[in-house]
Design goal:
- The complex is a heterotrimer of chains A (251), B (944) and C (291).
- Chain A has 251 residues and is α+β, with helices and mostly antiparallel strands.
- Chain A has one domain: 2-Layer Sandwich (Alpha-Beta Plaits).
- In chain A, 22% of the residues lie in helices and 19% in strands.
- Chain B is α/β, with parallel strands linked by helices and 944 residues long.
- The longest helix of chain B has 18 residues.
- Chain C has 291 residues and is mainly alpha-helical.
- Chain C has two domains: 128 residues, no CATH class; 136 residues, no CATH class.
- Helices cover 68% and strands 2% of the residues of chain C.
- Chain C contains ten helices and one strand; from the N terminus they run H-H-H-H-H-H-H-E-H-H-H.
- In chain C, helix 1 runs antiparallel to helix 4 and helix 5 runs antiparallel to helix 10.
- Chain C is globular and about 75 Å long.
- The model of chain C has no long low-confidence stretch (mean pLDDT 95).
- Classes of the chains: A alpha+beta (251), B alpha/beta (944), C mainly alpha (291).
- Chains in contact: A-B, A-C, B-C.
- The structure holds ligand MGD (2 copies), iron/sulfur cluster (5 copies) and molybdenum atom (MO).
- The site of one iron/sulfur cluster has 13 residues of chain A, from helix 1 and helix 5.
Amino acid sequence: MTALPQSTEKKLGLVIDLDTCVGCHACVINCKEWNTSNYGAPLSDIDAYGAEPMGTFLNRVHSYEAKQDGKNAQTIHFPKSCLHCEDAPCVTVCPTGASYKRVEDGIVLVNEDSCIGCGLCAWACPYGARELDKAEGVMKKCTLCVDRIYNENLPEIDRTPACVRTCPAGARHFGDFADPDSNVSKLTAERGGMELMPEQGTKPVNRYLPPRPKTDVTGIGKIDILAPYLDPVPEQAGGFLGWLDKALEKI
Amino acid sequence: MPAFDQPALDTSPEVSDEIRKTTCYMCACRCGINVHMKNGKVKYIEGNRDHPVNQGVLCAKGSAGIMQHYAPSRLRAPMKRVGERGAGEFEEISWDEAFEIAESWLRPIRETNPEKLAFFTGRDQSQSLTSWWAQAYGTPNYAAHGGFCSVNMAAAGIYTMGGAFWEFGAPDWDRSKLFMIFGVAEDHDSNPIKIGLGKLKANGAKIIGVNPIRSGYNAIADEWVGITPGTDGLFILSMIHELMKAGKVDLNYLTRYTNAPFLVNEDRKSAEHGLFLRDEDGKPLVLDRATGKPIAFDTPGIKADLAGTYRHAGHTHRPVFQLMAEKYLSDEYAPDAVADRCGISADTIRRIAAELAHVAFEEEIVIDQPWTDWKGEKHAQMIGRPVAFHAMRGISAHSNGFQTCRALHVLQILLGSVEVPGGFRFKPPYPKPVEAHPKPHMGINPGKALNGPHLGFVHGPEDLLLKEDGTAARIDKAFTWENPMSSHGLMHMVISNAHAGDPYKIDTLFMYMANMAWNSSMNTNGVMDMLSDKDENGDYVIPHIIYSDAYSSEMVAFSDLILPDTTYLERHDCISLLDRPICEAEAAADSIRWPVVEPDRDVRGFQSALIQLGSRLGLPGMVNDDGSAKYQDYADYIQNHERRPGVGPLAGFRGEDGKGKGRGAPNPNQIQAYIENGGFWIDHIPDEALFFKPWNKDYQDWAVSRGIYDAPQPYVFNLYVEPIQKFRLAAQGHGDIQPPERLRKQVETTMDPLPIWWPPFEGTLVDIERFPYHALTQRPMAMYHSWGSQNAWLRQIHGANPLFVSGEIWLDTGFAEGDWAKVTSHHGTITVPVVRMDALNGKTMWTWNAIGKRSGAWALEENASETTRGFLLNYLIDELLPEKGDGQRWANSDPITGQAAWFDLRVNIEKAAAPAGNNSQPHFPAQKSPVGKGPKNVTYGDDF
Amino acid sequence: MHPAPSVILFTSLSGLGFGLMFWLGFGFPDVTGWTAFAFFFIAYALSVGGLLASTLHLGRPSRAMNAFSQWRTSWLSREGVAAVVTLLVMAVYAIGLIFYDTNLQVVGWIAGLLALLTVFTTSKIYNQLKTVPRWNMPLTPVLFLTYALAGGALLAGQVMPAAVLLLVLTVLQLATWQMGDKAFANAGHTIETATGLGNLGKVRQLESPHSSPNYLMKEMVHVVGRKHAMKLRVISTVTLGLLPVAILLFLQFNHILALVAVASHLIGLLVSRWLFFAEAEHVVGLYYDKR
Ligand SMILES: Nc1nc2c(c(=O)[nH]1)N[C@H]1C(S)=C(S)[C@@H](COP(=O)(O)OP(=O)(O)OC[C@H]3O[C@@H](n4cnc5c(=O)[nH]c(N)nc54)[C@H](O)[C@@H]3O)O[C@H]1N2
Ligand SMILES: Nc1nc2c(c(=O)[nH]1)N[C@H]1C(S)=C(S)[C@@H](COP(=O)(O)OP(=O)(O)OC[C@H]3O[C@@H](n4cnc5c(=O)[nH]c(N)nc54)[C@H](O)[C@@H]3O)O[C@H]1N2
Ligand code: SF4
Ligand code: SF4
Ligand code: SF4
Ligand code: SF4
Ligand code: SF4
Ligand SMILES: [Mo]
């Protein structure tokens, strides 16, 4: 349904911790693996063994470098999938009603049976979260693993998105942002979880936890506090061996 | 229209028909996997939550298992070569014919000259089987890939503390507060390290990454130390200097658990110089502080001195610790003296040393768990120093790697942070003193087995594998004066030595799971030439090559006989305590693979094929008295083979009743028991035995009960490694076994029983002005060596590789986005695209390892991106160092272990025009694919 | 954005077609019978052809009918509805003129306005996208409408209106380029806002998520060289309005010359429409450090 719900009962989404993500792509491939044989059509790979393979992925990990004058550059691995925006422009542009946001949990989905593959929703998404599948001709996007999170054929502990379950570093968290006591709400509050491109006004549900401040080689303030730890012992009477003798006496 | 008439959605679709639990083998980490089956096909693979290794998580490679299992590159049947070597022209044959061919080569040489077989294996996990086979065959020429991989790390760890980082130990992720990681991109422990880093982050611990490149683990480190390649040893010794100077070392730990108090002969003229003073029983002596008298180090109740002088038989003896103080307190190791060479400011070195001291000694952690030590002394608590370290090939794959790894272990030990809460801990079967390992053997007896295991740990010159005439007994020249402690052999030298006939010629090269014609060789072009080189009679210089691979790799094309392996989902395997098991610091564990899918091709698990070949050859242990095969296949062997009575490949569910742990008679239902248990077996170490394992009585007893050793093996750590000194002593002219003159100086200077540092060899031999930069490779987390390129999913992530160059080099060379560069080493030249990276040591450039592929291999299209936009750094790396001017070509290896010095590479870089067609150079002509090509498009999951 | 021939043809041809319909609806030129047929044929050929071209862009053209359902919210859907309604209403008017020699003028006016409305909805498809700041400017619908009116007038043979409108169009087009060049920067989107990493310093891409390209990069990330674009703008400016106006005003007007003027305009239109897409930077390019 192309109109957006006024509000949703839950706001399910992901928190991605940029301070912990090592850029391993596990979430990328496990997402591909789950989704190619579950919700909707397979995620195809065109020219799979050729010169320019091009497949559909619902989640991709970028790598950035950030540099401030006088400081070491920093590398940031940056996974990105649909942010399940509250004000999702991808939904309202859709001419067929294939794109919709679920009332019960806010998940943004594509009903592949009605999609005509016009691509407009992908144009409307600022985040590059939608990819048109070349083999099937329909729009694919992150489903927030809607076929896992409520799936009674899975053990309860596994009713979580594939990318979250697989992330080796534990950098991905899934939960309900509408509930202030949920893990995701708390993490967002504690660590200053941020929105991507807030100026687009899409109100993304997913949040990113920024990298924690780094000790920089130029930031040597700490040395003063710690310097006493390295006060040389040979300056004591008897030098190093004298110190050693006394120290051994004490143990 | 109602606003929200959402389509009905089935949120509980059926996931699969059945889950089969086995072990992943998309890399050597060996995670547990749940393979979801649907209509007889693999539908989904996820991590097994109960599994000790991965605890449910799964990496990108593991998740791409489906694409590997169904890859078009899978070999389909045994093949014999019909074209020229390297061309890729083959004919499929039956297994019978394949065995006949192999027998026709192997039987005659076994009867006359078993050393003419060189059997080397790569990234496999069945070294306890393959080494046993090679021993039964009788050739001394066997090793796995450790020599070019990370033997420095393994050997330094075992000689120093009876265990290594590698897969054999782990930081106490739950309790550590400061973690330093040196030279690691991914490591074997892929998922466990990531799980561990996640825990450290969640607990608010600090992570310091020491690496010229800030990516992956180093990207999330709280502090990045962008060290100059090859200088970690200096950096570490400088921190040791600071810590010792400030007295921030754990003296209690050092006196109890290490050889710091051992008395060393200080008389340079003595034939015992540098050796320990021992009593009649051969026990090293220490000075008892109470009496001032020497006494056996393990005497209960004594307090040993760490300084002092003791004269005996006219020679001065002083404790190891005092020698260390003299050595490391010297200004040579002061931060200001090393800062420039390391590319790290002296302040930073001092601060990190201070942080280590602070966390180790001020943030000490205490667990209220009583324990008893080997001398029977009871301790009320377990005291921990929550600083942990980990390191891998970044420090080991240099020509000074062994001593650098030693330096790191010495640092850990000085801080008292090994086998304590919050520190680094061993995984069974480690810890294990170096003396408990075998020594290497070379005793050949045509038609019979070798006189003992091939590989091991030497204790002095008498253990070297030299023939009467002083030449190497092994084709790879392991355990010779060139690299006396080459515990893992030198696989990277086999092809070039065999080609040169130095030390001798061989007849058959038999290899398994190693892409030696491509990414695992230095000097890739040269190796391809050697493999296909012919003598004056038109015969191949290396007459026969047998190779087992599962896929159509580059190496397949260079082989004469191919034994096609199954994929990892189609065969039995065991990840054994006799080999490289999946143990955790808190438990012993091992696991299996089993055919969760039956092969649809005429392929066989290599281990089964090897056992079958062995029984055809009548090898001892593989045939019954009547000559019939003892084991039908590998599964049969896994269940029924006993290495020692009651101890076999699998430790779990032993005995008729299946209740035996570690020990017990073979159990005919053992594999089934593993399958029912999720593919693995785990046995937790009791709480009182969880730490201080080398000195913990309860641990020692537990290990004996589990068949890990036959008697308790307590020992102390070797800050000072006496066996190393024995080689130096020989080089100084003592003893009967003497190094050749050309090696005398090298042995004397490098074989220092206390860690030292020297500049990486390549950098000292080339003109630094001409080759001012360092070039490195890193493992991509989402790709395993050459395996991943055939994988339709993974190759989209890493289907091409650029060269990342530092901002400094970028600006100096005047690069712009989209530029190409010509990179030159003393050995070769490549032309590749460049990308700027600022989070990189200024003098360094790097690329992802093993992405470039030879055209025609892996069932890819001949113009696949890997062949056009991918490249190897291996074209620039030589297995030999540049000429020194002494008429010799020295190996590009660590002089102690022979480890290949991949990361010593020095290069120059300049702007270049983009090559024709934007193809990276060099580019080799296409091999013919023996398995055809894959389909154009893939839509996996269509039929579910 | 990727300048796909299907969307270029769709927007240009249907714009021209509906522009012509506007003039025809209001009785310029006042034609009946076969002459009327010829005019309406051109108008329908252009608009229907354009619409058909647009379906080439669909992954599932066979389901194109679904696109009419969301007219309450979706501009693309509205465009479809408006186009069909226009074509139907215009058909009534056209049939009257061609076959019955009857001028249902009120129907004509309605159909003419509907034609403009259709062009407006087309423009809104692009104009609504905040993700493409160059399009997300109030000038976009105005420009589209002017294109339709000017091109329509030209095709309808309305010399003076066409001349005036073509000059207005040229000015508008130049202004749109001018403003469009600053739109991205004015919207304030940067790689830093895209990644939220601005407080760590200047951000740049180190490595793309995949070594091979993907749908997004092919569809949304198209980089045109500045020099190349400038050349095309000049060509477009000249052929779009200046040359046709010159022909209209300063040369003896005849059918051949009219054809040259139309051809020139068409070239200018196609070039400018190519630029409309090719120069449009989608914010997603920021994630790939490409604009
Ligand atoms: N420049 C550079 N070069 C390096 C390194 C580096 O850091 N830099 N690292 C070195 C190191 S540490 C290593 S370990 C080597 C690794 O290099 P290799 O040991 O060559 O490793 P792989 O590329 O994994 O290739 C092993 C072969 O095993 C085959 N294989 C895969 N699965 C199976 C199976 O189930 N059965 C059988 N029989 N075969 C299988 C693959 O098809 C492949 O041909 O590379 C070395 N090369
Ligand atoms: N995904 C994946 N996992 C793998 C493999 C794989 O191919 N893919 N291969 C497996 C194998 S065989 C091995 S041996 C292990 C190897 O695991 P790693 O040891 O992690 O191997 P490398 O990728 O060679 O990483 C070497 C690291 O050392 C850094 N380095 C180089 N020189 C120096 C130096 O002088 N000082 C310091 N401090 N750092 C330096 C490099 O920048 C790089 O980050 O990985 C295993 N795991
Ligand atoms: S799996 Fe986790 S650590 Fe790996 S790339 Fe994804 S979010 Fe980052
Ligand atoms: S991220 Fe993109 S696709 Fe997802 S809801 Fe937001 S706008 Fe739509
Ligand atoms: S591609 Fe499909 S989902 Fe997207 S806007 Fe078009 S019809 Fe809607
Ligand atoms: S939630 Fe599911 S669909 Fe979305 S990125 Fe994660 S695995 Fe993919
Ligand atoms: S780390 Fe990945 S590839 Fe390696 S065994 Fe584990 S899941 Fe498999
Ligand atoms: Mo390795």
